[in-house]
Each structure stands twice: as structure tokens, then as C-alpha cells.
Predict the 3D structure of the following.
Amino acid sequence: MTALVEGAKLPKIDLTGPDGERIDLQRYLGKPFVLYFYPKDDTSGCTREAQGFSAAYPEFERLGVAVLGVSRDTPEKHRKFTAKYDLTVPLASADSDETLEAAGVWIEKKLYGKAYLGIDRSTFLFDSAGVLVRAWRKVRVPGHVDQVLEAARAL
């Protein structure tokens, strides 16, 4: 399994948007870009994180920074999640484990002593050339969006 490290280039991963459109991350080249991965739509931490990115989305846009949230949920679940919470941050679906492995976010987790594979809540900030300038792993939601916004302002 690979992991994105600072200085790495924007990964070539396959994503699907909420309307079924294919998303090529290379389209984000030319402007700073926040790519965040989260475990599951409509869970408490993931909802708070999406609401935080949605609240800050106008500021990211003002700075010229694109934002995209990614989980394993289907495009239909993303549409329902977005509608339920009036989210403005764009969401995409990772269609395969290989996609998540390419970003280094598909990891072994434990719950009640049982091991399973799941998404490591992670956020990546790329500069306009597609170079990773900051990575946050094992993200704790409170205050995280503010940290990302502060780093984006510094670009």
C-alpha cells in the first residue's frame, strides 16, 4: 500500500461524482486543491466534517481553492446526504479499494477488537502544480477545517 507524502504528485485515482460523472483529479491542476477522505455518509463525525467544509466552502472558493470529499458511499447516497444536510462541498465516490490504496487511505482498523479495512479520515492539500504540500492523517473533526483553511491561506 502506498501513502501520499508531502512532495508527492496528485494521484491518478478513479472517482465518480454524485450524478455518475467520472472525475479525473487532473482537472484540478492549475489551482490549489483540498482532497479529503472520510469513512461514511450520514455518521456523526463525517456529517460534522462535511458541514464544516460546507460552511467554509465560500472562503475556500474566494481563495481559489477547490475542495472535494471522498468516501466509498454510492453517488445516490451522496445525493441524499447532500440534500439532508444542505451540503455545498462537492462529494465523490471511490469505486474500488485500489482507488483508496492509491491515496494511502485504505487501512486496517479495529473496532471492539475486530480488525477490518476502512478509510482513514485524511485530508490532503495540493498546490496549483498538483504537489502535496500538507497532509493530515487520522483527522479529529473539531477544528480540522479551520486548520486546512489556514494552510490554504498560506499558499
